[in-house]
Specification:
The chain has 324 residues and is of the alpha/beta class. 40% of the residues lie in helices and 19% in strands. The protein has 10 helices and 12 strands. β1, α1 and β2 form a beta-alpha-beta unit. α1 crosses α7 and α2 packs parallel to α4. The chain binds nicotinamide-adenine-dinucleotide.
């Protein structure tokens, strides 16, 4: 049985990844390292039991001694690094914690991995990054992996810093690294503070749906399971040192997302409330994911409007206190 380290596996995407691998790969032992910040929720891991195939460790990716102890105990083949501070609104209020976790934490994990693995080509260190590192697009075009990073928030700047640390470790130590850049994820059990849960929670309570500024900002939406399948493909087929965009092609402005929520909730379209825009709010992100499609066989088959509507209905039912 091979062992994989997942960081941030009690978060929204990390937990979906743990559930998927636990269900589909009986030959894999997962070690989930999570600090259990406000964003973590172990209910996301219901049904994933402690045992030979799963171990939970509460701890900080910034803690080098803890990481060294883990590397001494486990022979990790893969590291899938999700752990991060992720909410941009919080980064606007204070960015320092973002740099501690996302930049310093990634560097600490890289140092530990380089110490344990050296340049062993059979291993993979995968940083789960974001389309936000590219900065804003206008109404046309799609980001390609070669495009420069031009982050707009302390969140995206700290993720870009993590990416640079990954590239440096690949150059300095020959560490076999991978970077994926994904768009907005939707799916079950996302934290209440994020856009889609906020809209659904408020709609379920019959309240107005707040939107930053005009609501014309465009985001690309991918189902979390498509993202996780993309990460698995990347681990198995990705070229060491490469970066892959994981998009979906499902582009919607925030106004349209709010309208879908109102429609599914049976509420009038007038329930949208425009609030002061977020400082540095990027207008549009969109990914060209042809490299992942060609090299990995990545196909985001569950990321269409029907699937987004299903998730909205599930969240509305959950917030209304009914079984989803
Ligand atoms: P999340 O906020 O739901 O979860 C983050 C998890 O990391 C939490 O369980 C938290 O306890 C843990 N964590 C935080 N600091 C830690 C530390 N110092 N040590 C160990 N664990 C720590 O995040 P998410 O939405 O699941 O995102 C996961 C990753 O995917 C992040 O790296 C994020 O940048 C990236 N990403 C997210 C999206 C999205 O739409 N949510 C899109 C693209 C990329």
């Amino acid at each position: 049985m091979e062992s994989w380290l997942v960081t941030g596996g009690a978060g929204f995407i990390g937990a979906a990844f743990v559930r998927m691998v636990h269900a589909s790969r009986p030959d894999v032992r997962l070690v989930n390292l999570d600090l259990m910040t406000y964003a973590a929720d172990l209910r996301r891991l219901d049904g994933v039991e402690e045992g030979p195939r799963y171990r939970f460790v509460r701890g900080d990716v910034c803690d080098r001694a803890l990481l060294d102890a883990l590397f001494a105990q486990e022979d990790f083949r893969y590291i899938i690094h999700f752990a991060a501070q992720t909410h941009v609104d919080r980064a606007v209020r204070s960015g320092a914690e973002f740099f501690r976790t996302n930049a310093y934490g990634t560097q600490t994990l890289l140092d530990a991995a380089a110490g344990a693995w050296g340049s062993d080509a059979g291993r993979r260190f995968l940083l789960v990054s974001t389309d936000e590192v590219y900065g804003a697009l206008g109404i046309s075009g799609r980001f390609r992996e070669e495009d420069p990073v031009r982050p707009s928030s302390a969140y995206s700047a700290s993720k870009a810093a993590a990416e640079l640390a990954v590239r440096a470790a690949a150059r300095t130590h020959g560490l076999p690294t991978l970077i994926t850049r994904c768009c907005n994820n939707f799916g079950p059990l996302q934290h209440d503070e994020k856009l889609l849960p906020t809209l659904c929670r408020r709609a379920a309570a019959g309240l107005a749906l707040p939107l930053y500024g005009s609501g014309e900002q465009v985001r690309e939406w991918v189902h979390v399971d498509d993202h996780c399948r993309g990460l698995l493909l990347c681990l198995e087929k990705g070229k060491a040192g490469a970066c892959y965009n994981l998009g979906s092609g499902l582009e919607l402005d925030n106004l349209s997302v709010a309208r879908l929520v109102l429609e599914e909730a049976g509420l009038p379209q007038t329930r949208i409330e425009h609030v002061a825009d977020r400082p540095g709010h990027d207008f549009r992100y969109a990914l060209d994911f042809s490299r992942a499609a060609a090299e990995l066989g990545y196909r985001p088959a569950s990321s269409d409007e029907d699937s987004l509507r299903r998730e909205i209905r599930r969240a509305l039912a959950l917030y209304a206190g009914r079984r989803p």
